[in-house]
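Example (one chain per record):
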Amino acid sequence: MSIVQPKVKSDKKADKFISGAPDAHPHVAGIPKGKKRQISLTIKPELLMAIDEISRETGQTRAGLIGMAIYRLVKRYRMRAEAEQSMSQRT
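Predicted structure:
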């Protein structure tokens, strides 16, 4: 004789309550600022001076430069991860 789990009925009120819990969704760090999030960043003084120099030379803001650098890092990381996954699927 096998064990069979009973079918669970969907309770819309309970589902709504559970989905409204603070831990129901992944936590997004930072303070909302429009469509972006403000974070705190600790950086070596030499690196900050270099960023400020590039900022002056390019006319971009410090935040813009840092955001662009992070964007490029994430893009490169994801491309590398996709390539590795593609290679592993071939073997």
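Caption: Residues 30-90 form a domain with the Arc Repressor Mutant fold (CATH 1.10.1220).
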